[in-house]
Amino acid sequence: MRYFLMVGLYFAYGQGVRQVPLVEVKNAELLSIIDSFIDHERKCYYYSKDLYIFVTILRHNQVYISSETTLWPQGEYWGCFFRDSHLVVVNGIRLDSTLFHKTDRRVALRLYTPQRGVDPKTGVEILDYPVCGTYSYWVYFYIGGKFISDGKSTRCK
Q1: Of 26, 33, 54, 87, which sits 20 to 30 A from 41 (CA to CA)?
Q2: Counting Cβ atoms within 10 Å, is residue 144 exposed (0-12), middle (13-18) or buried (19+)?
Q3: Phi, psi (5° rounding) for residue 48?
Q4: How far apart are the first and last CA of the chain?
């Protein structure tokens, strides 16, 4: 697995490590959407158990559900939980208290850190950046405790 999990243990932040709360999902409809999303991703050529699922809270009550291959160091990670063997990360502008409850437990996420170096034969600098991998995203409006679909996009064939 590409994530590093430490529940209940605290240690100094290292480069590329961020501690976030383990959260519980308070909304059954959101869990159903995430389950459907994971079922959809399983049918795709790029599927891997190492895909991260993101729940991104945006302005104007928008919620994106997406999958990616990398935990990037920028942005706010408000919490995470596990669903069907996947790490689900909550990010965006805030942790919506109608959807999530923070627990006292914390998880250490190992974020992607680009590696740099120089090719000893050519002297050319090597930059290590992964292929950006946002594969699918589903967009919803969250209004009055209900999710209203606003579209879907996928690389799935």
Answers
A1: 26
A2: exposed
A3: -150, 150
A4: 25
Lowest mean pLDDT among 22-31, 63-72, 82-91, 119-128: 119-128
Q: For residues 141 and 143, give the distance between their C-alpha atoms in angstroms, rounded to a whole number.
A: 6
pLDDT tens digits, one per residue of 3-56 = 333 332 223 334 578 888 999 999 999 999 999 999 999 999 889 888 999 999
β-sheet with 146-154: strand ranges across: 100-110, 17-25, 77-83, 86-92, 52-57, 62-68, 136-143, 146-154
> pTM for this one?
0.78
State the Cα–Cα distance between residues 98 and 144, nearest whole angstrom: 10
- The span from the CA of 11 to the CA of 110, in Å, is 13
Q: What is the DSSP string of 70-83?
A: ---SSS-EEEEEEE
Mean pLDDT of the chain: 83
pLDDT at 147 over 60: yes
Phi, psi of 32, rounded to the nearest 5 degrees? -65, -40
Tally Cβ neighbours within 10 Å of residue 116.
Answer: 9
CA distance 59 to 133: 24
Residues 42, 27: Cα–Cα separation, whole Å = 23
